[in-house]
Amino acid sequence: MALSPRFFSLLLAATCPVFAIAQDSRSAGQATRAKSALLVVDAQVGVVSGIWESTRVIANIETLVNKARAAGAPVVWVQHSDDDELKYGSESWKLAPNFVPSAAELVIHKKYNSSFANTDLDQRLKALGISRIVLAGAATNWCIRATAYATVDRGYNLALVSDAHSTESMKLPSGVSVAAGAIVAELNAVFEWISVPNVRTEVKKAVDIAF
User: Fold this and answer.
1) Calpha distance 211→197 (Å, rounded)
2) Please, is 118 exposed, middle or buried when counting C-beta atoms within 10 Å of its C-beta (0-12, 13-18, 19+)?
3) Count of CB atoms situated within 10 Å of the CB of 57
4) What are the tens digits of pLDDT across the range 156-172?
5) How far apart, in whole angstroms, are the C-alpha atoms of residue 78 and residue 42?
6) Side-chain-side CA neighbours of residue 209 (13 Å)
């Protein structure tokens, strides 16, 4: 009679304490898998219309939104307002036409670069039991960077979606121009290499993100 792999697992667990501990650890790891939320930052008309490779980035954010919804993961939208180009309620302040939050999805309004600054985002995420944030949106060198650092500083695991954030090229006071693609690549590299206690960071393409 052929014996199943399950039988051998039970036999080893009963006769080999080390194997039993390994099995328990594996089960615990599966049971404590991080609960993820998608955080879409400033996907607004006045922001994404001018970013580098806007069409591709918007399509990748749409892919992430569809994945998160299909997996039952929360989608959180962040909208920036100021007294200049993104006045609250203006056309440029509105989310881009591709993005329509559902009635159940959170919309966070902010006035600073970090999505956590003077908002209740942290409390909302904790109330949902979130431990991993999948981050996308704009602009890379401003609100994405600030939100990414704020995320890991608060102890959340972070998945920065390498092809779902972008910005515009910028000219420094010295006259040197920095290409948008280089800004995106630099932030992706930072969060591949960064080391934060008890926090895991990932940098993945939209197609490889799982919720």
Assistant:
1) 23
2) exposed
3) 25
4) 999 999 999 999 999 99
5) 6
6) 34
HSE toward the beta carbon, residue 200, CA cutoff 13 A: 10
Helix (H, G, I), strand (E, B) or coil at 204: strand
Tokens, residue 164 = 């779902």
pTM of the full predicted structure? Answer: 0.85
What are the chain's domains? 1-32 (no CATH), 34-208 (3.40.50.850)
Number of residues that this document lists for the chain:
211
Torsion of CA 202, 155, 101, 79, to 10 degrees: -100
Phi-psi region of 129 (alpha: psi -120 to 50; beta: other; left: phi over 0): left
Token digits of residue 180:
């948008």
Residue with tokens 């949106």: 137
Strand, coil or helix: 78: strand
| DSSP strand pairing (201-204 vs 170-171) | unpaired
